[in-house]
Amino acid sequence: MIHFAPFRTRAPGLPRKRRGLANLCAGSTAVVSVLIFNLAAHAADHETLSDVSKRHVGAEPYQSRPLEPLTEALQQGLEGDPASVFLPGSRLGPLTRALLKLEAAESFISPARYRIRLGQVQIPQPPKAQPLTVSLVQVDRYNLGPALAEQLERQHGPEHVRHRQFADDPHVSWRFVMRSVMGTVAMTEAAAQATIPDGFAATMDCLGIACTAPHHRRSQPPGWESLQAPSSEIETDYPAHRQQLPSPAAVLDTLLVAAGAAEGNDRVVWLGFEPREGVGPGDVFVEAVLEVGLGPESSIVGLLRDDYLMDHMTRTMWYRFRAVATAPDQPPVTELARASAPRPRMPDQ
Predict the structure, then answer these.
(1) CA distances from 10 to 13, 88, 197, 331 (A)
(2) Which among 307, 289, 293, 208 is positioned nearest to 252, based on CA atoms?
(3) Which residues contact residue 338 at a Cβ distance below 8 angstroms, ignoring those fewer than 6 apart?
(4) CA distances to 55, 64, 74, 90 from 71, in Å
(5) H/E run at residue 338
(6) How many CA within 13 A on the CB side of residue 175?
């Protein structure tokens, strides 16, 4: 266990807004939920950016959301480097930007579980030699309060549980289409939102655990290797602390820096993941799960899976970060580690 060297930030807290959300049919089946909320936006040959956007954010039951109010809500909670010519948040990667936009649009709740997924599409740009890389991101937030209340009732009796301590916010899912535009690493081209009914949410998988399970993942890949904690000199454009703990965005960036997808020398800067052969356009190859407010202690846990690696020996890399609050005037205690999963051997090997 090592003490957390915290990210620094000058920004105030993100604004929290409650908005009317479209509900889905509560009687839908678990099979349909997998098709709706896990469906990749496969791109056919000669598709344009508009085609890919419509396929990703236009899928039922997602409802398109205007970009300007969402961007304004995000920018209110950001503060960049005063010496930089770029706007605050211009170097945020697509995963962190998507998570922050969800938090700007929805009220903050705890306990909660976030699932962030990334797929990419390469769109040819003749006569340019390099194709346009489009990031397709989906961020789900699951409200674990009701499930935790039920668990506590079974353990201690309903007379000892105060349900008003837990938020009644719905499970929500946001989809974003992003690409690099001049000085902005992940400019949002389109956004859509949906409410996930309880019956659907109970069937969803969050890296080996039910997305609505009121406890941490109990099994982990073997062979974890400890890594160095992030530097205390790293700055972020967003609030990096919440209730004595790293914020979900700070935990996500910690995992991305560990995975080599972001640089964390003096400020977090998105570098990106290498393209994957054998992965279909829009198919998910990076997934992260963040758990906030679970367990008897105040904590946040993050797990990232980087899959389908271009390596003849290693198929998957896992990265894990955990922070537990201690005394009010002390930094939290943290762990940062990684593990790998080998590529399956062929029968003749």
Answers:
(1) 10, 11, 37, 18
(2) 289
(3) 224, 225, 227, 258, 317, 318, 319, 320
(4) 22, 14, 5, 12
(5) strand 333-342
(6) 29
Alpha carbon distances (Å) from 201 to 46, 195, 212, 243, 292 = 35, 10, 7, 27, 17
Angle between helices 94-105 and 248-258 (to 10 degrees): 170
The end-to-end CA distance of the chain, in Å, is 40
CA dihedral 261, 265, 266, 267 (to 10 degrees): 0
Q: Which tokens belong to 101?
A: 């936009």
Q: Of 39-48, 132-141, 229-238, 276-285, give the lowest mean pLDDT range.
A: 39-48
Tokens (6 digits) for 234? 């790293």
Give the pLDDT confidence of 80-103 residue by residue, as tens digits.
766 677 788 898 999 999 999 999
Instruction: For the full predicted model, state whether its pTM sits above 0.70.
Output: yes
Question: Helix 67-75 crosses helix 94-105 at what angle (to 10 degrees)?
Answer: 90
Three-class SS state of 288:
strand
Q: pLDDT tens digit string along 138-195?
A: 999 999 987 666 655 565 566 555 555 566 889 999 999 999 998 899 999 999 999 9
How many CB atoms neighbour CB 198 within 10 A? 14
The whole-angstrom separation of Cα 94 and Cα 92 is: 7
Tokens of 158: 């309903």
For residues 238 and 249, give the distance between their C-alpha atoms in angstroms, rounded to a whole number. Answer: 8
Q: Which residue has the higher pLDDT, 161 or 29?
A: 161
Tokens of 185: 């690493």
Q: Which residues pair with 143 in a beta bridge?
A: 112
Residue 148 CB coordination number (10 Å)? 20
Cα separation, 22 vs 162, whole angstroms: 28
Amino acid at 254: T
Q: Which residue has the tokens 């949002």?
A: 188
